[in-house]
Amino acid sequence: MLTVSDNVNDISQAIQAGADGYLLKDMEPELLLEEIKKAAIGQMVIDARLTKQLVDALPVRQADPESKLADLTSRELEVATLLAEGQSNKQIAKELEISQETVKVHVKHVLNKLKLNSRVKVALYMVQQK
Description:
The protein contains seven helices and three strands. The chain is mostly helical. It has a three-stranded parallel β-sheet. Helix 4 crosses helix 6 and helix 5 crosses helix 6.
């Protein structure tokens, strides 16, 4: 869904109705195209700026004693934590003083180790582990 609404209820309703993603119209054209391509191959895409709002709207659950977080390196854990804050790869790279390409590698490792298929699911997982 391509929209101007960043309302959590609108996002939730769209996803529950089967939307493959939720992107805001004011995204940079290159990023928008990249996200649309991801959605076309079956990945759930949510504008990174909306992740924190979605996470904040979720009820917090007890941490899983069998958490897969122990499988992450310290850097991957940092990246996962920043993903949960809704930061983009560019923001994470700046925060950690690494390249965006390195961030992409860490995100890929986090997704694989946690057996998740989207940044949003990583963010949700991280919140649930608190």
